[in-house]
Amino acid sequence: MSITRRSFLKGVATTSAVSVMGPSLLVSNSAKAAETSGTWKVSGSHWGAFRAHIYGGKVQAVKPLSEIDKHPTDMLNGIRGILYSPSRVRYPMVRLDWLKKHKFSGDTRGNNRFVRVTWDEALDLFYRELELVQKEYGPSGLMAGQTGWNQTGLFHNCTAHMQRAVGMHGNFIKKVGDYSTGAGQTIMPYVLGSTEVYAQGTSWSEIIANSDNIVLWATDPVKNLQVGWNCETHESYAYLEQLKEKIAKGEINVLSVDPVKNKTQRYFQNDHMYINPQTDVAFMLAVAHVLYNEDLYDKEFIKTYCIGFEEFIAYVQGQTKDNVEKTPEWAAAICGVSADQIRDFARMLVSGRTQLLFGWCIQRQEHGEQPYWMGAVIAAMVGQIGLPGGGISYGHHYSSIGVPSTGFAGPGAFPRNLDTGSKPKWDNNDFKGFSSVIPVARWVDSILEPGKKIRYNGADVTLPDFKMVVISGNNPWHHHQDRNRMKQAFRKLHTVVTIEFTWTATCRFSDIVLPACTQWERNDIDVYGSYSNRGLVAMHRLVDPLFQSKTDFQIMTELTERFGRADEYTRGMTEMEWLRSLYAECKKTNAGKFEMPEFDEFWEKSVLDFGTGKPWVRHADFRRDPEINPLGTPSGFIEISSRKIGRYGYEHCQEHPMWFEKTERSHGGPGSDKYPYWLQSCHPDKRLHSQMCDSEEFRATYAVQGREPVYINPQDAKAKGIKDGDLVRVYNDRGQLLAGAVLSDSYPRGVIRIEEGAWYGPMSEKDGALCTYGDPNNLTLDVGSSELAQATSANTCIVEFEKFTGKVPPVLSFGGPIEVM
Ligand SMILES: Nc1nc2c(c(=O)[nH]1)N[C@H]1C(S)=C(S)[C@@H](COP(=O)(O)OP(=O)(O)OC[C@H]3O[C@@H](n4cnc5c(=O)[nH]c(N)nc54)[C@H](O)[C@@H]3O)O[C@H]1N2
Ligand SMILES: Nc1nc2c(c(=O)[nH]1)N[C@H]1C(S)=C(S)[C@@H](COP(=O)(O)OP(=O)(O)OC[C@H]3O[C@@H](n4cnc5c(=O)[nH]c(N)nc54)[C@H](O)[C@@H]3O)O[C@H]1N2
Ligand SMILES: [Mo]
């Protein structure tokens, strides 16, 4: 890292008078009026760093940190609406029926009737419940393991705060894996030796300079790079711009394989191949068939770097398993791409340097392990893994993967676990024969079928029998599948505690709700650029915590006081002392490599900028010498077949990639007679999951008649008498919802989209539990991807829809609880 790149951002002062910032500021007239005084402060978020104008104790306006962020996301306009949301959790609240009937009140959970209590009352109740569950059931009775997209900031990671505090009291059930990449992160270590999904990828500059062909396979980087795990810099967009230019000039061939024309394809205006949903593996097997039978594949690469090709190719040739030859004609009938197009595609792959870029949605479906494994097999047959602009990536749509890393080592975070040597108050490790760790997406199965044995990644898991759930930093009533099934499960629970700043459906289905503040009501530090490690950003408290909300740190300190562990929990440090200590540790680690000023100077400047790192090529070292740099697979080579997986004896993940029919599938697949449409619940363009859905003005920019949009092909709509802007009822055997029709040619016939994260707002059960806003997880299927990963299968989902003609109900998702006096 050259010393010249290490520069501090000049003039990003935190509390400078507004006049210093110049006149060319913001938007609305009210914001303009407020500019005459007040201060500007820098903070961060998943959506990027920004300056906020604070006047009269309120955030009046937000604008991007344009010195670094040249491609800020529109979603910055939703931030004020999060702070000042009418759905903010204002006070500690307890569910009325639970107060009266305690563990026998599950049948009315979700009726949203709450009473206000004091902080002391609420925390006493929380503590009482922790005591009860440990006494009566032990650690297998408590689930506190779910994680999610808590706000940015390394110190205030709310899930870490909750888990450390609750963990000091007693042990609990934890999870493994996540909803994002559950299938991918489990299969890929067997195939390429790492999760691949969370690994740094070949630099964009190398791809743009060297690729002749790029295949965008189920990926939408233009939409999905708007947000980052840490504070996002949006550096990837500069590369996407370069790529767009090259496409326009015909210098690079970019082809998308996707059931819909997504935002990236609309931006690039590149070639697009429609494929039937959930059928990529059939398509890919036929591609392998062509590469093999036309002798186009790289035999040398397969021999030097791979194992298990023979078993796999025997299956492709129809000599094993189902004895069906995986010809282009066979695949065409399933995937909807013609046999000739499949042949052309295979020939294109070997016509020059070809980079495959996969997204994640394709593995969030039944048998989601298979397309990822099969993608690696195709890349191996093409023989360019480890070359600049060749091979395969599983992450270029995510958090600045592909932007070179500077090598700066970011600060540590608040510890999630107990300090070494420390024991919980209830020092009990007896999980009564239940598993203490479960695959993340199977937690609702646990509530419904405790004691059931399932198979998972080479092990047996006994689903635990938990009675109490503590939730912080995730929103299961958005993220999990099949609402009506969840409702059945939640009835069985004795106690649900949620720590939140906004009244999500998860709050509605809880018994105790504790008001946290947002990240803009506390001080923190964060890495700037999740994978690029561009620098460090100071997150200044913009305003004091609203209503009675407190920081998660404060809440958990007060909880641990109740069992005499607060000093240990906080290590005797305040918020600012923690920030200083994390910073000091980071400065020490980077000494000699990256110059960091004293904390106070950093805090005033707000941003440390270490520039851009050196370009890099994934798997280049393995290619150079597979003996010295083996992969992390059992053999050290690319495993086209895996003995280890074969030995597990699973039905839906066998020793090499295979085509498996889905439980339900549109386009002539199972169930499509009754429910002919595929519902894809992709990630939202104007939200981060459910976050920002309650941001009112911003929601109004995309909602249709106040409802979540459902994107429909114009001919499909016409056939049902649906016009743009109509209300539509979407349904299947699992549930139903209302959404607002947006007609678009980007969607082929037979495919509709409702973005995940739309807030759940159900009518009563006697009214059919119709969701009044449009949460797609009313309709999705809740089964494990396979015995290997047991991951979510959210995108295995078929539906029917019609124009809504009934009495239009109000939207019930927003605005908090019904407060009972
Ligand atoms: N149908 C369908 N379902 C899906 C997906 C899909 O593609 N289709 N995608 C899945 C994927 S990939 C993911 S990652 C999950 C995401 O699922 P989640 O991570 O559960 O989704 P978020 O909406 O980000 O929920 C985070 C919650 O934490 C709260 N929160 C944030 N910060 C703080 C904090 O500092 N303190 C406290 N106390 N609370 C905080 C927010 O207000 C919000 O309610 O959804 C999954 N669900
Ligand atoms: N704006 C925004 N960005 C985000 C997020 C967000 O909530 N909002 N969430 C972040 C998170 S947590 C995650 S996990 C990632 C999610 O990243 P992904 O899961 O990759 O994103 P999606 O947008 O759900 O899907 C990407 C593409 O896959 C296509 N696709 C779906 N099924 C199939 C299929 O069967 N075959 C083929 N060929 N294509 C298919 C879809 O049509 C879509 O164009 O995004 C991250 N980025
Ligand atoms: Mo995710």
UniProtKB/TrEMBL annotation:
<comment type="function">
    <text>Reduces trimethylamine-N-oxide (TMAO) into trimethylamine; an anaerobic reaction coupled to energy-yielding reactions.</text>
</comment>
<dbReference type="InterPro" id="IPR009010">
    <property type="entry name" value="Asp_de-COase-like_dom_sf"/>
</dbReference>
<dbReference type="GO" id="GO:0050626">
    <property type="term" value="F:trimethylamine-N-oxide reductase (cytochrome c) activity"/>
</dbReference>
<dbReference type="InterPro" id="IPR041460">
    <property type="entry name" value="Molybdopterin_N"/>
</dbReference>
<dbReference type="InterPro" id="IPR006655">
    <property type="entry name" value="Mopterin_OxRdtase_prok_CS"/>
</dbReference>
<feature type="domain" description="Molybdopterin oxidoreductase">
    <location>
        <begin position="88"/>
        <end position="562"/>
    </location>
</feature>
<protein>
    <recommendedName>
        <fullName>Trimethylamine-N-oxide reductase</fullName>
        <ecNumber>1.7.2.3</ecNumber>
    </recommendedName>
</protein>
<keyword id="KW-0732">Signal</keyword>
<dbReference type="InterPro" id="IPR011887">
    <property type="entry name" value="TorA"/>
</dbReference>
<dbReference type="Pfam" id="PF00384">
    <property type="entry name" value="Molybdopterin"/>
</dbReference>
<keyword id="KW-0560">Oxidoreductase</keyword>
<feature type="domain" description="Molybdopterin oxidoreductase N-terminal">
    <location>
        <begin position="43"/>
        <end position="84"/>
    </location>
</feature>
<comment type="similarity">
    <text>Belongs to the prokaryotic molybdopterin-containing oxidoreductase family.</text>
</comment>
<keyword id="KW-0500">Molybdenum</keyword>
<dbReference type="GO" id="GO:0030151">
    <property type="term" value="F:molybdenum ion binding"/>
</dbReference>
<dbReference type="GO" id="GO:0043546">
    <property type="term" value="F:molybdopterin cofactor binding"/>
</dbReference>
<keyword id="KW-0479">Metal-binding</keyword>
<dbReference type="InterPro" id="IPR006656">
    <property type="entry name" value="Mopterin_OxRdtase"/>
</dbReference>
<feature type="signal peptide">
    <location>
        <begin position="1"/>
        <end position="33"/>
    </location>
</feature>
<dbReference type="InterPro" id="IPR041954">
    <property type="entry name" value="CT_DMSOR/BSOR/TMAOR"/>
</dbReference>
<dbReference type="Pfam" id="PF01568">
    <property type="entry name" value="Molydop_binding"/>
</dbReference>
<dbReference type="InterPro" id="IPR006311">
    <property type="entry name" value="TAT_signal"/>
</dbReference>
<dbReference type="GO" id="GO:0009055">
    <property type="term" value="F:electron transfer activity"/>
</dbReference>
<dbReference type="Pfam" id="PF18364">
    <property type="entry name" value="Molybdopterin_N"/>
</dbReference>
<dbReference type="InterPro" id="IPR006657">
    <property type="entry name" value="MoPterin_dinucl-bd_dom"/>
</dbReference>
<keyword id="KW-0574">Periplasm</keyword>
<dbReference type="GO" id="GO:0009061">
    <property type="term" value="P:anaerobic respiration"/>
</dbReference>
<dbReference type="GO" id="GO:0030288">
    <property type="term" value="C:outer membrane-bounded periplasmic space"/>
</dbReference>
<dbReference type="InterPro" id="IPR050612">
    <property type="entry name" value="Prok_Mopterin_Oxidored"/>
</dbReference>
<feature type="domain" description="Molybdopterin dinucleotide-binding">
    <location>
        <begin position="677"/>
        <end position="797"/>
    </location>
</feature>
<dbReference type="InterPro" id="IPR019546">
    <property type="entry name" value="TAT_signal_bac_arc"/>
</dbReference>
